[in-house]
Every structure is written in C-alpha cells, then in structure tokens.
Write a structure and sequence with these properties.
Distance between the termini: 37 Å
Number of strands: 13
Order of helices and strands: EHHEEHHEEHEHEHHEHHEEEHEHEH
Radius of gyration: 22 Å
C-alpha cells in the first residue's frame, strides 16, 4: 500500500456519497447521480474502487461485472471462441463467464476520477492491484478498461505496465465549443454546409414543429421510452430498448439539474426527443427517439433537436465540449465535430491462458506495443 493511502471497495454508490464523487468528477457519466440511476434501473453488479488519503477521496474507479456483455459486443477478440470458452469454464465451476469492466455502462468511456494534484500513477497502481484481487476472488479470467480515450495520458501510459494489452477500437465524436454564439459557429463551417443547416432549421420551423428543453421530464417517461424503442425498431426489428420508463424516471430523480431532454412537438404531439447529461462545462448528447409515423414531410427534426438546438443552448450555458456517439460519423464531422480514437486494454488473470493468448496475438502480427489492427466480435 502507498504510504498514507488506502483503497476500499463498495457495492453501492451511497456508501461513498454524492458530494465526494461529484467533487472530483469531470464527466456526467462518472457522477453519483448516474451510478445511482443505474443501480435503481438495472440489476447491475458494481465494484466501486475508492482511494482515500485519511478521509479525503483521492480517486474513484467504477468497475462492473459485464452483465450486459458489452465486452463481447465492443471488445477485442483476443482468442478464438472466447465467449464459448468462458461459458464452458462457468459450467464446470472453474470461472465466471463474465468480464470485469472498468467503465461507466452505456457511455462508451472509461475514466478514473482523480482529485487535483494527487499522485495519479501511485494511485492507479493501487487500483490495478485491487482489480487483480477482485478478479481472483470472483474467479474472473479477464478484466478490461474498455473505452480509453487517446487523450487520457495516465491510462495510456500506465496500463500496459500493469499487464494489460492495448487494442485500437474505433472513434467517437466530440465538438469543442470555441465560438461566442451559434451564428459564429455557422460561419466557421464550409458555405455548403452552412446553407444546408440554415435550410434545415427553416424547414423545421415551417413544418409547425416546436422544440422545448425540459429539466423535469419524469411525467414523460413512458413516451420517451416508446420513442427510443421506435428508433431501435426502425433499424432492427428484433431489438429491444434497455431504457424502459423506470430508467427515465430514475434519471429525472437522481440526475436532477444535470439531465435535460430536448423535445419536439407537432400539433401538440410528442414526435421526438434528445436526452443530454451535463456536468460542469461538459455535455453529452446521450440518446434519442422519434415517432416515425408522424413524419409526413421532411421536417429535419433529427438535425434540429439532435444538433442545432442543443448546440445553441450549450453555448448560452457556457458549455465548452459536447460528446457524441460513434454513429453517423460523416454527419457529425460535417457539422464541426472532431474524432477521438478509443482503445481497449485487456488483461488475462490466468497465467496459462495468458501465455497461450500472447502466442496467438503474436501469431496474428499484433505487437503488444504497436498494434494497428484487431478482429472484433
């Protein structure tokens, strides 16, 4: 243990406390309210790692048993039939068929919150060792820092030293708000895009649709859940939304003042929404939903409530950065967004299997220090 530092593991975010977590968080998805919403909405299995100097919280690392199988959707396939091997091991009682993920579920980001001026590398060493202990106790074969940004210097420079292998994933999008107002933002874009945006705003207004920002949206929980399901069904008829009405009600309660819903209405009917989560000067455009059978004309509601209205509001609020997801990359890049490369770090906690994995990875010409390609599930 680092002298003067101690690390504790909690299974409920209330055991750490709202003020302590939010004081060192720099992201809405790493705040007390978000984790409280997850606990109230899903049957999750968290291990919250908290590093203290006496009674002062120095660092906070959220880890979760991957009950949603996010690793097998987004993580690297480091050995053939990885999921099947874990399933067999689980049936034989040798290991669990889940991965331990250090991340915040559903936000596609991995972060560790540090108090300013703390010894980050020493603290991260404590966190890494505690993850090793959890995996041994819980019979977990793999742990992963699944969505590490290229801009996260401490994780990128340290995790390989703790036995993690680095794999490139994909790119997410973000928008730095460096303009004083929306008009200045438009002027920064190429003329063709600028004219397109003006036309889309004009047609949206002419369609009779209106937009409203709501910080209290609990009463709309059922409608928001239905609209999100409509979006998923449009692209995959077999898909099922994870966000039922209780999720939106819990979010409205626990992320009060930081969660906002931009809603579009036409003739009094709710026809679309965008959910955003804010913490300090960073905002995340999280999820959305639309009523497609109400779309008779091209009213460009997606672009207006997904981009233009939130961007304008964010500028007025002094927000400096907006995060977006990795879909519709071309659309977002044309509207001024920049791409952010994401990496996955994976560690095997079984020595024999680790040796076999290393041989397999080397055979596929993927070096531990300079990897360019990887096959994903």
């Amino acid at each position: 243990m680092v002298i003067g530092k101690r690390i504790k593991v909690f299974n409920f975010v209330d055991e750490i406390g709202k003020e302590a977590i939010d004081a060192i968080a720099d992201d809405g998805f790493f705040t007390y309210g978000w984790f409280k919403t997850l606990e109230a909405s899903f049957n999750i299995q968290p291990f919250y790692l908290a590093v203290y100097d006496e009674d002062r919280l120095l660092a906070f690392a959220p880890c979760f048993i991957d009950i949603f199988e996010h690793y097998f959707v987004y993580g690297p396939r480091i050995i053939p039939y990885m999921k099947k091997i874990l399933d067999i091991g689980n049936r034989l009682g040798l290991c669990r068929n889940r991965v331990l993920l250090c991340y915040s579920p559903f936000c596609y980001r991995t972060k560790i919150s540090f108090k300013k001026n703390c010894e980050e590398k020493l603290v991260l060493d404590l966190i890494s060792k505690k993850i090793d202990e959890i995996c041994k106790k819980e019979r977990i074969v793999f742990s992963s820092f699944l969505f590490v940004s290229e801009f996260d210097a401490i994780l990128n420079s340290s995790l390989e030293n703790f036995g993690y292998t680095k794999f490139p994933w994909r790119r997410t999008l973000y928008l730095d708000l460096t303009w004083p107002n929306f008009e200045a933002y438009l002027q920064s874009l190429p003329k063709k895009i600028r004219l397109t945006i003006r036309r889309e705003i004009k047609k949206y207004t002419a369609s009779g649709a209106t937009t409203e920002r709501l910080s209290e949206f609990g009463k709309l929980a059922d409608e928001l859940s239905d609209l999100n399901a409509c979006l998923l069904w449009k692209y995959d008829k077999s898909s099922k939304s994870l966000y039922d009405a209780s999720f939106f009600r819990n979010l409205n309660e626990y992320v009060k003042g930081k969660a906002n819903v931009f809603v579009a209405r036409k003739n009094g009917e709710l026809i679309g929404y965008l959910l955003s989560i804010r913490h300090n000067d960073v905002m995340d455009c999280y999820n959305c939903g639309f009523k497609y059978d109400a779309l008779k004309d091209k009213d460009f509601r997606y672009f207006n409530i997904g981009y233009y209205v939130p961007i304008k509001w964010a500028m007025e609020e002094g927000i400096k950065k907006i995060y977006y997801r990795f879909t519709a990359e071309k659309i977002k890049l044309k509207r001024g967004c920049k791409s952010e490369r994401i990496y996955s770090f994976v560690k095997c906690h079984n020595k024999l299997l680790e040796s076999l994995i290393y041989i397999y990875v080397q055979a596929r010409h993927i070096g531990r220090k300079n990897q360019e390609t990887i096959i994903y599930n």
